[in-house]
Amino acid sequence: MSINIPNWKESREIRSAVKTTIYDKLLWLPEDKYSDEEVSMKSIQVYQHVYSYAGFNQVRV
Predict the structure, then answer these.
(1) Fewer CB within 10 Å: N-end or C-end of the chain?
(2) Are 5 and 55 in contact (CB under 8 A)?
(3) CB 5 within 8 A of CB 58
(4) Is residue 36 very low, low, confident or very high in pLDDT (cuts 50, 70, 90)?
(5) 18: domain range?
């Protein structure tokens, strides 16, 4: 899924939606290999990477 959202970092609602989307996508990975806690931790890491990416003012989800 790919959506361009200019200036997404400026909106709390959009940042929250991005976090939720990342979590939901990771949650559908093989259940027997990843616990809910692991998915939660990895989703935070992925979000931090996306948010901190230099010059990245649009999000593709």
Answers:
(1) N
(2) no
(3) yes
(4) confident
(5) 5-59
Residues 29-44 as b/e (b if ≥16 CB within 10 A, e otherwise) read: eeeeebeeeebeebbe
Rounded-to-integer distance, Cα 16 and Cα 20, Å: 6
Work out how many domains the chain is built from and give that number.
1
CA trace torsion 28, 33, 35, 37 (10° rounding): -90
Phi, psi of 5 (to 5 degrees): -130, 95
Flag whether pLDDT at 44 surpasses 90.
yes
Residue 25: phi and psi, rounded to 5, are -65, -40
